Each structure stands twice: as structure tokens, then as C-alpha cells.
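PROTOCOL LOG
Step 1. Enter all chains and additional molecules of the complex.
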Amino acid sequence: MTETIIKVRVAEYKTGSSPTIFKCFGLGSCVGVSLYDPRIRLGGMAHILLPSYKPRPGASADALPKSPFKFADLCLKSMFEKLLSLGCEKERLVAKMAGGANMFSNSFMNLPESPVQAGIGERNVLAAKDVLGQIGIPVLAEDVGGQKGRTLQFDTRTGSILITSTRGDSNVI
Amino acid sequence: MNEEAIEQAMSKMEPVQLDALQEICNIGMGHAATALSQMIGRTVNLSIPRVTLAPIADVPDILGGPEKIVAGIYMKIFGDIRGNMLLVFPKASAQGLITMLTGEKFESETLILNDMNASALKEVGNILAGAYLGALESVLNMSLLVSVPSLGFDMAGAVIDYILIQLGQEVDVTLVVETEFFGCEETALQGHFFLLPDPRSLDLILKACRVKSLLD
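Step 2. Run joint prediction.
Step 3. Record the structure below.
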């Protein structure tokens, strides 16, 4: 059976069963998170842009943003529920993540007028781990941080993620 | 005016408003191209700016696809308006530009830049941004400042997502003003200049151009 390839874009998550391959292209400070049920070989992948959702001042606490899946908390919770509805069991679900790099560097990183602030990628990684901890899904492996873009291929046949970068290196987690 | 109202107004922008944006970016880019041309001693041509209102998820595709390898020089605009400027050179053009400026030749696979070369590219960004904003300052009668440049040399998606993260905190769609510039036949130089104004600054630009405000 040939595999289906599904592209996961910024602020999206996709779910599917074996032999689906999910691809996230060019992750910098964004984080790609996979959830996988190895028994039924069904999983999903999220491409997260921002840590967690805070309603705007004055907005009601229940008001959801227009594209909720750019936030780690709203995206992962929604993907988790979707996977349960597709037949995954919470006890079997495992997570992996990659990305969260700091793409730009300069010597003015710590000044307020610096165009880039340190730690944006790191905050996304921490937020994703935090949400997974709340739901109770273990993070089996990660390849995060550094100063390189990553392309991820999450293979639902094996549950592994192939990570490639422009530096020519590759890593499987 | 909240972000939602701004987003709605942005999606209903009229031709006259888009024309105004296109025109001021054309003026800015004209000055920037002259500066680049003087720096490298070669002719630099410009395309007509393209103004696109796009969901932030589409921005990597506008840049030529998330996996394309580019050198991105990123600067923030401060002062009367706020926003982001991104100068993008495809890998070969970035390397060609460095060769023109420093005389250093490259193996085509090289992706790691030494300090000297990275600094040369950042300087290109700084000079272009300075010329661009200088022109905008006099057209709009505003005071504009530019941050120190930051350089990323990697996949376009990875270079741009930092900017998307900043924009994404407030809005889901963004206005991208894109100008393509290219050298003449013997210099295969090519690049894109992107202006991504903060949503709140967009209205200030329109008001300064004396065209219809987003709020009317």
C-alpha cells in the first residue's frame, strides 16, 4: 500500500492512520508535535506557532480566537480529542516533538530594541510540554533548539519522525 | 479599535488604498535599489510592488515555498509606525552578492557564513532599509527608525516563522508588500523585499497618504 503524504502548515493539525506520512516544512521557532497510538497506528501532527492562548483584555474568557490552532494549548487539546474520537486510547498515546530553534542571532539579543528576542522557540517547546503534561501524555523523544531550520516527516507506520535540516544532517526520533 | 475590526477593515481594503500602499513602497524600493546599485556598481531593476493580504499560514508560500533556502535579513521598524522588514535573497544570489562585496568565492553547498560574510549581508540590509525608510519618511512626513539587522540563512519557512510568531500574537492575516528586484543579464542577482506593517500602523500610513482611513 502506498503511503499518503499530508502537509501540515503553520497553525494547523492533521490526523490520519497508517500509511500516512505527515510533513512539516521549514520549522524555525515553530514546534512540530506528533501524537501517536502505536497499537492502531493512528496519529496526528501539529505545527504550532505560539505558546498559549490568552483572551484579549475585555474579551470573554470563553471567546476563542479565529485560528485557535496556532496556540500550543488549544491545538494540542483539540488534536488529542480528535484522536480519541478516531479510536485512540489515552493510555497508549505518546508524543514526540521537534523544532523551537532560535533562527536569528545577534549580539544585541538582550536589549529591548533588538529585532529578535531570545527564547521564542524555547517558550513554544515549554508550552507544548506543559499541555502534554496536563493531558498526561509522555514525551518520548525530542529534537529541539539550536539555530537551524528543520523539516519533519512523521511516519504513522512506525511512529518515528525523520528530521532533516539544510546543514545536510538528519536524525530519526 | 480592536484587532478584529482591523482585520475586517484590512480584508475590505479598496483599490485606492492598495494603490497608495503600492506607490509608497515603490518610492521606498526605488531609493533602496539605487543604494544597492551604487554599492555593487551594477544595474538593479525593480518589479512593480505586489500588495497581498494573506493568512499568516500562506506567508511561507509567498516567499517561494517553505523549503527554499534563502538568506533573510530581518529588521524592525520603530518610530511613528511599527512593522517588520525582510530582505530575502535566494541562496545563489546571497552568495553572489557576498562575492561582489568581499571577493570571496563559494562552493555551492556552503551554508555556513563566516562573521565577515554575515556582516556584509547585514550591512546590505541596513543600507537598503535606511534608503527605503528615508524615502518613506519624507513622503509620509514621519520619523522612522530601523533596528540592527538580524540574519538567518536557512529554509524560508524557518526564517519567516519568527516574524509570523510576532504577527500571530495579534492577528491571523497580514499585509505583505513585496517587491522583486533583479540585476541585469551578467549579474544573476535576485531578491525580494517584504514590508509587513503592524496592523495598527497600516491605518497611520493610509492617513499620511491622505487616502481613506480603514475606519471610515
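Step 4. Note key features.
Chain B touches chain A at residues 2-4, 7, 55-57, 59-60, 65-67, 69, 74-76, 78, 109, 111-112, 147-152, 154-162, 164-165, 168-169, 172 (CB under 8 Å).
The radius of gyration of chain B is 17 Å.
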